[in-house]
Design goal:
Helix content is 43%, strand content 10%.
Length: 317
């Protein structure tokens, strides 16, 4: 049974940054300590058999607990960098991220020295979570591969991609794909959230409102199979592969194996890596090639042109 001294806050969703910011301000204004707050989203609260509707409203801590804390007054001001950190950490998959951020907020107000302590465990944990989110966003931008599905007459083709992010980053990364593929009709499916871009709707309004649609999660089998365009991409990839620059350890670091099953070119990595040593040897043993055409600088016109009189005077001096 939930303790009467615990205030339960239920946010609208996993990435409800405005809701978290609003609730955190209210909790801080009422001097509710971090240990007296339980954070939930609507999904987690529904799954939590111990969460009750009576706990959702904001409640003051008991008088004995309030007396142990100094009134915050106007000192509840945090650096802008902390707000940016919160906006990133809120996208992490760790359910304890809300409690961590509110604890950091509480401590920054009551412990001013925390702002100058980069080795504090809470600060380090938040920084590592932010780095993981940024890394996941970078991987999504790099490893999404679109495939074209059947085109309906009179409509532009639809390009669909499947991706499995580690964190709640789909909505945060969506603007990148809108800018990158503005004229293309596309959809990205993920287990948690899916998005679709309709350029024809963007053309109807100046700001493109309504052209980006979010939907529920999907399954891997919902993504389309390989197409002719993918075969062309594999041919191009195999031809640009440079065996002399192969660094498997660095490649696995930048392109972890867990992404390979969603990358068409991954099926070529084994064969291309196995042939790398032989191909590099042939490149070294091959004789140097002569350029078919040699372009020489045209300097004769400059040599034959007369030297101005003022320059001749200067040279004589």
């Amino acid at each position: 049974m939930a303790s009467s001294n615990v205030t339960t806050i239920t946010l609208d969703g996993d990435t409800d940054w405005p809701g978290f910011r609003r609730e955190a301000r209210q909790l801080l204004a009422h001097q509710v300590p971090p240990d007296c707050v339980a954070w939930h989203t609507r999904a987690s609260a529904a799954a939590d058999l111990f969460a009750s509707a009576a706990d959702v409203t904001l409640a003051l801590p008991p008088e004995s607990l309030q007396a142990t804390h100094t009134p915050l007054g106007n000192s509840a001001v945090v650096p802008p960098a902390f707000l940016r950190l919160c906006e990133t950490v809120i996208l992490h998959e760790d359910p304890g991220r809300f409690g961590l951020l509110y604890r950091l907020l509480w401590r920054m107000v009551l412990e001013p020295g925390l702002r100058r302590d980069p080795l504090d465990p809470d600060r380090l944990r938040a920084q590592h979570m932010a780095q993981a989110v940024r890394r996941d966003m970078h991987k999504m931008k790099a490893f999404v591969r679109f495939r074209t599905v059947g085109q309906t007459e009179g409509e532009p083709p639809l390009h669909v991609a499947w991706f499995e992010p580690d964190h709640h980053i789909v909505e945060a990364v969506a603007p990148f794909f809108v800018r990158r593929f503005t004229q293309m009709r596309w959809a990205i499916l993920t287990p948690e959230r899916s998005l679709e871009w309709l350029p024809e709707l963007a053309q109807q309004t100046a700001a493109g409102h309504g052209a980006l649609r979010f939907g529920p999660g999907a399954q891997r089998q919902d993504a389309p199979p390989a197409d002719a365009g993918e075969a062309l991409w594999l041919t191009y990839y195999s031809h640009i592969f440079n065996p002399a620059r192969l660094k498997l350890a660095m490649m696995r670091k930048e392109m972890p194996r867990r992404y390979w099953r969603n990358l068409p070119e991954a099926e070529l990595i084994g064969a291309l890596s196995a042939e790398a040593a032989v191909r590099s040897g042939r490149m070294i043993d091959a004789p140097a090639t002569q350029p078919k055409r040699r372009i020489t600088p045209s300097t004769s016109a400059h040599l034959d042109s007369p030297v101005p009189a003022e320059l001749q005077d200067g040279q004589n001096r």
